[in-house]
Design a protein that fits this description.
325 residues; mainly beta; five-stranded mixed sheet; 53% strand; iron; repeat; kelch repeat
């Protein structure tokens, strides 16, 4: 039976770097990584520039943009559908939860405000998004009155939001969960629901039904704000907060540096053999920006920045190249 494994590579950074930060987001279009939002000081948004990192030249630049530019924010999410990036929610400098949906056309470098207010999901931050070839899915996060467990989809063709049925109390409201779409299902993995949790849920897009998933194998411990991607039938989980700080978001909790994979067919977890190919291992961290990417012909997980066990914001970029043997 084939075994999934990964090799870590620390990527060089040239040009005008975005700088150390956490609670930011990235999206990948082709060989370009688009980075937005985040904090260096807890709860204080850094800027609203759109920074672009070229995976071929390993060079940063700042995009010359036009249109309705989103204000600075933390706890924001990004997802790409084709050559368009969608940015949703977050928390502004006044610590107010947001619910605007913006698009960014990477061909014209133009921002557009798509929805806000009573249209679309309620205000939130530290939620999760994933996308397929037509939809951007939004789940959970920290809302105005507490943690959320609602699931929404934005149809990029019709330009409309759809709210799906609630999962009910079996899937508690949570921030920082993993979210992927695979085999016609939306998978909600772990998260923070007043405590770190280790449950997995999925929503069947065809039947519009929720189910709690009983997983086996070598399960990772409960965690949130980890980095994740999908490769084939496997959901990859790296790092994350395994024990929150007594100071809440102002402090650093305990973080993991391990990599796990959940087989969405057998529903079995396995710890990945993740070796260092060059530049070192990213180590324990959470609150990173992350995305699926392809580099050197190999699919993998791109991880940028985040928060460290010493409560220092990080500015490095690592790529976990995945393969089966």
């Amino acid at each position: 039976m084939a075994t999934l494994h990964g090799n870590w590579v620390k990527l060089d950074q040239r040009g005008i770097t975005q700088g150390a930060r956490s609670s930011h987001a990235i999206a990948v279009v082709g060989q370009k990584v688009y980075a937005f939002g985040g904090e260096f000081v807890p709860r204080v948004p850094v800027d609203n520039k759109l920074h672009v990192y070229d995976l071929d030249t390993l060079t940063w630049s700042v995009a010359d943009v036009s249109g309705s530019i989103p204000p600075p924010r933390v706890g924001v999410t990004m997802a790409a559908v084709g050559e368009t990036i969608y940015v949703f929610g977050g928390r502004d400098v006044e610590h107010t939860e947001l619910n605007e949906l913006y698009s960014f056309d990477t061909k014209t470098n133009t921002w557009a405000l798509i929805s806000r207010g009573d249209i679309g999901p309620p205000h939130r931050s530290y939620h999760s998004v994933t996308a397929d070839d037509r939809h951007v899915y939004v789940f959970g996060g920290c809302g105005v009155t507490g943690r959320l467990n609602d699931l929404w989809a934005f149809d990029v063709v019709d330009g409309k939001w759809v709210e799906f049925p609630s999962p009910g109390e079996t899937c508690k409201g949570r921030g920082g969960p993993g979210l992927t779409v695979s085999q016609g299902k939306i998978w909600v993995v772990y998260g923070f629901a007043g405590m770190e949790v280790d449950d997995v849920h999925c929503f069947d897009l065809a039947h519009k039904t929720w189910a709690q998933v009983e997983t086996g194998g070598l399960k990772p411990t409960a965690r949130s704000v980890f980095s994740t991607c999908l490769t084939g039938k496997h959901i990859i989980v790296y790092g994350g907060e395994i024990d929150p700080s007594d100071q809440g978001h102002m402090g650093a909790g305990q973080f993991s540096g391990e990599v796990y994979a959940l087989d969405t067919e057998t529903l079995s977890w396995a710890r990945l053999d993740d070796k260092v190919e060059s530049g070192g291992h990213p180590g324990p961290r959470g609150w990173c920006a992350f995305a699926s990417a392809c580099r050197g012909g190999r699919e993998g997980l791109l991880v940028y920045g985040g928060n460290s066990p010493s409560n220092d914001r990080l500015d490095d970029i690592f790529y976990l190249a995945l393969a089966q043997s």
